């Protein structure tokens, strides 16, 4: 990686924590200069606009969020157990996120009207997360780990809605009560409604 | 009401739809001037600061949201049916909100770091909504309409988290799928888990 590419990546990572906390409109050039230690020219040598930098900052924050949320899940063979780990990661691995919390929640609300390009990025991120979760459910159904009558799409939309809403309440209350309640409910739902009653031999945990 | 008070109320209502859509940082004086048709002096004759106007705008947007969400609920005698109506109001009465959607979601995310006074207002609004919902659950338990083993606090935090998260997903997808799914799930939860099995005679719908 060239020196220029390294600097560009560093700017994106540092800008991400500003955009994710302050929002697009709330982020001033002076904030970005403070965070990166660069002058205006030093930043905009690498990016054509604030919009471009904000887009890359979102991609960066989202990549980190996906790594946190899918951490330690791929090796879990049973789909229900994997979904349970994902739910717990939402609760327990927030400190690894880019400062400011869930970039999807922030960008969905922040970029609602004012920034259609950023909004499109967030919509695609949501779609790809839902698809990835749906695949886990579908595979679990095929392997007999998940009840056949579970609608994969409904389950993943409901799960993500509950977690994102609880994140919002958490943030407002400055307490982990909402996320604790949401996780306990979703884990219980996975065990009592989602998990196939007759466990296949592939269930290991 | 004096002419001055009338003007003040009109400014608050018009500013609310700007702050609720664009956020605190994203709202420029020029936006407020466009929305109200007033010059800077005409607006700030009535408010000491943007912060004060934003606070009153939040209170206004929240009051409207509460009217929409509790519409047609007070006359429903059974607590479970009342909660179900509240859930459906979240889905069906969004067009009556101040433009920009749920002021709690917007303010929780927007005012996270940058505006502690507005954040405090939103936290109090959340608290009072949760208390009001909890009271419905507690009264329903006392009247034997709701299972005795239901934890009122957990139920209302879970319900609100699910609805607010679904609102966020709706907004991003520009589709009502998430809220449809969330409402169907919550209504089913009310019927199958929350409603006391042996219905008391006061159940009328």
Q: How would you describe what is shown here?
A:
Two copies of one chain form a homodimer. By secondary structure, chain A is an all-alpha fold. Chain A has helices spanning 3-22, 29-36, 40-44, 50-69, 79-92, 103-110, 116-142, 152-173, 177-194. The mean pLDDT of chain A is 93. The first copy, chain A, starts with a helix and ends in an 11-residue tail after the last helix. In chain A, helix 1 crosses helix 4, helix 4 (50-69) packs parallel to helix 7 and helix 5 runs antiparallel to helix 7. Helices cover 69% and strands 0% of the residues of chain A. The A-B interface holds A 21-26, 100-101, 104-106, 108-110, 112-114, 119, 122-123, 126-127, 154, 157-158, 160-169, 171-174, 177-178, 181-182, 184-185 and B 21-26, 100-101, 104-106, 108-110, 112-114, 119, 122-123, 126-127, 154, 157-158, 160-169, 171-174, 177-178, 181-182, 184-185.
């Amino acid at each position: 990686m060239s020196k220029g590419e390294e600097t560009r990546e560093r700017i994106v990572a540092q800008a991400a924590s500003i955009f994710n906390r302050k929002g697009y409109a709330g982020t001033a050039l002076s904030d970005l200069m403070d965070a990166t230690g660069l002058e205006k020219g030093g930043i905009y040598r690498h990016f054509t606009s604030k919009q471009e930098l904000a887009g890359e900052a979102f991609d960066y924050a989202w990549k980190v969020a996906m790594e946190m949320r899918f951490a330690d899940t791929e090796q879990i063979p049973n789909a229900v157990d994997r979904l349970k780990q994902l739910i717990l990661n939402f609760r327990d691995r927030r400190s690894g996120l880019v400062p400011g919390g869930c970039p999807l929640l922030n960008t969905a609300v922040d970029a609602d009207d004012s920034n259609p390009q950023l909004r499109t990025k967030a919509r695609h991120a949501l779609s790809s997360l839902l698809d990835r979760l749906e695949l886990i459910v579908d595979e679990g159904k095929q392997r007999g780990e998940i009840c056949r009558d579970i609608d994969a799409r409904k389950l993943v939309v409901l799960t993500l809605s509950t977690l994102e809403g609880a994140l919002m309440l958490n943030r407002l209350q400055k307490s982990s009560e909402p996320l604790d309640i949401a996780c306990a409910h979703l884990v219980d739902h996975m065990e009592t409604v989602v998990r196939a009653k007759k466990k296949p031999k592939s269930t290991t945990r």
